[in-house]
Design a protein that fits this description.
- By secondary structure, the protein is of the alpha/beta class.
- Helices cover 46% and strands 17% of the residues.
- It contains 17 helices and 14 strands.
- It has a 6-stranded parallel beta sheet, sandwiched between helices.
Length: 430
Amino acid sequence: MRIVKLTKETADHILENLLKRSPTQYGEQEATVAEIIAQVRKDKDEALFRYTKKFDGATIDAGSIQVTDEEIAQAYEEVDPSLLDVIRKALVNIRDYHEKQKQNSWFDSTPQGTILGQKVTPMSRVGVYVPGGKAVYPSSVLMNVMPAKVAGVEEIIMTTPCNAKGKVNPAVLTAAREAGVDKIYKLGGAQAIAALAYGTESIPKVDKIVGPGNIFVALAKKAVYGNVSIDSIAGPSEILVLADESANPRYVAADLLSQAEHDELASAILITTSQKLAEEVSKEVDGFLNVLSRKAIMEKSLENFGYILVAENQEDAIKTANDIASEHLEIVMENPFEVMTKIKNAGAIFLGEYSCEPLGDYFAGPNHILPTNGTSKFFSPLSVDDFVKKSSIIYYSKEALEKIHKDIEQFAASEQLTAHANSIAVRFED
């Protein structure tokens, strides 16, 4: 991996380079996505069958687009029983973590005759997109579905690509059944997002679409936002490791590659105050590349978006980490908890040398669907909050309103909204 001295200039260059990975930078794909969405809105199921044949090589129709109970039963026979056991253990951890995020409706009454409150209501139907391109992700099924289940969503629809024979990965299907998905459709890409957003003869329209995907999925979610809600427009995976001389270089190298293997646009960055650690990590990365699969993907990722930055001091390292605002941030330092208090921007924060990123991807419980491309400055991980709506509750008795009606009338008059003022005033006419 390249080793670079951290300066303001190098930090600015890296930030600019990372932004090239944003879904907003792909105009050519945006036009393709717009055409797919338009066709699905126009031809509905027919367009879905056509695009599935074109992109996935599978022939599906109205009778086979939905995964059947028999197919799910077959998946249970095919999946490794030990993997199913792990899925069930992870599901418990994920559910328990998200249970702590639940909010209840609340009401506050006063002796003056007022009641103010907030009503929390689960969404009726949500769509979960599970990718199936370069890898299969039963873990994403659990991470998308469990907060929706905890929130109390009435119906959860899942779409995921099938192979050329019309079959969905058995681990994905079993994870979906274990998590409580109501309906599963063999559908991927931008066409799946369009179907969930607008509805077709086979696919019901949803209120919100969640889940990561490739650039076409990300751009499709961006295009349909407003007609439905979405969680975020996810970019490629990324990891940033903050480390000092106490860090184990072999562990750090392994963690950097854990994200570089996702795809060629993934980002893996180490910021350290130790030149010695920087050189040792670079050497360990080279060693791992020679023995791990997906070598070509990792090499391309590191060539384009991989950096080892050597900072003069811890303050500069932390500032740069906050500027980059990485999806995953590992703190491998002598005092990780102290450093954590200085971190403002990160999707998920991992503390200490045994809290590696894959722990969060699969098992610990916190959600692995996280803000990318610097958006952790204003976005949060997927949570129960993403699957509920909040309504304000207002009640005033006549006596309570009478005490303040002139104040409201004056406020409305100052904005020249006489009908607003009149709505209050008519209640107290002589």
